[in-house]
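Problem 12. The chain below contains 342 residues. Write out its predicted structure in C-alpha cell notation.
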Amino acid sequence: MLATRRTLVAATAFAAVTLAAASARAEDLVVYCGVQEEWCQAMMNAFTKETGIKVAMTRKSAGETYAQVKAESANPKGDVWWGGTGDAFLQAAEDGLLVEYKSAKLPELHPWAQRQAADSGYKAVGIYAGGLGFAINTEMLAKKKAKEPACWADLVKPEYKGEIQIANPNSSGTAYAAIATLIQLFGENPAYDYLKQLHVNVAQYTKSGAAPAVAVGRGEASIGVVFMHDAVVQTINGFPVKTIAPCEGTGYEIGSMAIIKGAPNPEGAKKFYEFALTPKAQETAAAARSYQVQSNVATPISEFAPRLEKVKLIDYDFKKFGAAAERKRLLGRWDSEIGSLR
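Solution.
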C-alpha cells in the first residue's frame, strides 16, 4: 500500500513537472527575422524585457523565410515572421501560410503600412519602408577613373564590368524588388534585356540583399544594388560609401510582419505583433543602426534615414508583384534567362 502511495505521489509530481515544462515552452516564441542581425537581436531583447517571453530567433532573407514557412506548413515551427520585403509576405498570404490578424494599432500607422495589411487580407502588415538604390565606393571608382553611376542605365556601361554585386532574387527580396522595379519602369521584355546586359558587369549574386552594401564598404565591389538604408550603414561605419537614388525613378519595399498559420504559440505571437507596432519597439531600429522609415507615425525618423519624400519613387504595384503566380513566373524567367548564364 505504501509503495502504491509513493508511486502515486511520484507520478503526480512528474505530471506537475511535465505540465510546468509544457507551460514554459508555450510561453517561448520562435521568430523568423528578415532584417539585419543587429536589429533582430535588439528587437528580440526588447520584447523579452517588455513581456518576459523568451524568443528563439533565426535570421534569413525574405525568399529563404518564405521557402521555410512553406516547407514547414504541415508542421509549423515558427510563430512570427518579422521583417523582409513585403512581396514574399503577399505570396505567403495568398498561399494560405499566414493568419489573418487585425491590430488595434492599424490607425496609428502610415498609409503604406495600412495598405500592405489590406492587400494581404490582413495577413501581414507594414513595419518599415525603404527605397532601392545604389551603394558606391567612391575611392574605388576614383582609382579606376570611372564616373559615379547616377541612373539604372549607367550600370550596364562597360567601365563597370566585374564591379557590381546584386543579390539572387530567389533568396533575396531586395533583388526581386529590383526586377519588379525595372519592369515597372521599362516594361518586362526591356527589363530582362537590361538584366542580361547587367549580368556582364555582375561579379557576384549574393544570398542576402544587404550583402552587396557590406562588400562595397570593404572594397570588394565598387557598386551594390541595395536598399538605400543598407548603404547608409556603411557610410556611418566610416567607409567611403555614397548612397545614390537612380535618376529614372526607383521602387521601394514595405518590410512586413505576419503570424504564421498553425503557430505553436499564437497568443505569444499576438503579443509580439502588437509590441512590434509601437514606437518603443520601432525605435530599436535606429539604435541598432538600421535606418528604414518606421510604420508608426509617432516613431521618430532617424537623421541618417534616407528621406523617401526626396526620392523619385515609382507607384510600385505591390499587389501585382506580390502575387504568387507572378512572382513564381518572374523568378522562373530570371533563372532561365539570367541565372543560367553563370
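Discussion. Residues 130-252+326-341 form a domain with the D-Maltodextrin-Binding Protein; domain 2 fold (CATH 3.40.190.10). Students who got a different answer should revisit the alignment rule from Section 12.3.
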